């Protein structure tokens, strides 16, 4: 089953839930959230009861991930709130109620973005580095989609650990730069707590100015395709046979193409970009 880029985070988060003796997993996302669907599937597999809080009105006809949630027999509750913070607050309220009923809930915030989940993306960066070395490639630039911040936080930490000199760009499909940067910093600080002491010298280096976020490619908002994003999606499908998604990775690729077209990325470099496409774990 596909699950966006969330599986690496869940490896750590659901292990923690098991260790803490939870019996119920409560998480939240947009109506078509990949994160909530894949969390529900893994929760079932591991013997938890999943409860999903989806932000939006319940549609009459359940399509795509909503259809799959039904197939999985998952309890879905619909909420209508304005932002990620309020979605996380709604989770806490549900968890409190479950505790009163004698349940042992484990809360996973929007997108699984918490420090523990970011550790999965430090692992991803180790893999990326070893593939890069084997292929004898050098990147001057790396582009990462950053929706709720956890993926970028892990990649950023991996980048520091490996002393990478490439420029790391987080492309936001959803939140303004300041907001997503704050979420990334929270994930880095929380993730650093799980690292051994050698990491502390890296975490003390986290300076908001070193977190480069581009929020120029959001368009009309979350889940709304943009012209530049659809152009990028088609180009990569035609030329590489790789399918990007219009919500996240197509907007990131649109940003990368813009940097190339406008000369922000110098064309003369031999390998002038690397892009990590989290859900497929591949390099272009
Ligand atoms: C395909 C894809 N890329 C990137 C992201 C963003 O990751 P994060 O929420 O950790 O910032 C998501 C989140 O759902 C995703 O599904």
TrEMBL record:
It comes from the Bacteria. The keyword Kinase does not apply. Keywords: Pyridoxal phosphate. The keyword DNA damage does not apply. Its cofactor is pyridoxal 5'-phosphate. Residues 2-269 form the Tryptophan synthase beta chain-like PALP domain. Pfam families: PALP. Transmembrane segments: none annotated. Belongs to the ACC deaminase/D-cysteine desulfhydrase family. This is Pyridoxal-phosphate dependent enzyme.
């Amino acid at each position: 089953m596909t699950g966006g880029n969330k599986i690496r985070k869940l490896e750590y988060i659901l292990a923690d839930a098991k260790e803490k003796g939870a019996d119920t997993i409560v998480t939240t996302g947009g109506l078509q959230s990949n994160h909530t669907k894949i969390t529900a599937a893994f929760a079932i597999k591991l013997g938890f009861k999943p409860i999903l809080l989806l932000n939006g009105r319940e549609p009459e006809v359940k399509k795509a991930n909503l259809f799959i949630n039904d197939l999985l027999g998952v309890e879905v509750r619909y909420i209508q709130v304005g932002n990620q913070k309020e979605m996380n607050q709604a989770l806490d309220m549900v968890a409190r109620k479950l505790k009163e009923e004698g349940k042992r809930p484990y809360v996973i915030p929007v997108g699984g973005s918490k420090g523990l989940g970011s550790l999965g993306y430090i692992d991803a960066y180790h893999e990326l580095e070893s593939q890069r070395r084997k292929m004898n490639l050098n990147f001057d630039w790396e582009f990462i989609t950053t929706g709720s911040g956890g993926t970028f936080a892990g990649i950023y930490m991996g980048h520091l650990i490996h002393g990478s000199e490439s420029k790391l760009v987080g492309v936001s499909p959803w939140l303004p730069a300041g907001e997503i940067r704050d979420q990334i910093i929270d994930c880095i600080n929380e993730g650093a707590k799980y690292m051994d002491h050698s990491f502390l010298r890296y975490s003390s280096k986290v300076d908001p100015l070193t977190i480069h976020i581009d929020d120029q490619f959001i368009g009309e908002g979350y889940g709304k395709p943009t012209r530049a994003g659809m152009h990028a999606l088609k180009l990569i499908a035609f030329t590489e046979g790789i399918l990007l998604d219009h919500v996240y990775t197509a907007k990131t690729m649109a940003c990368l193409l813009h940097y190339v077209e406008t000369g922000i990325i110098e064309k003369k470099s031999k390998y002038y970009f690397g892009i990590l496409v989290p859900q497929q774990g591949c390099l272009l």
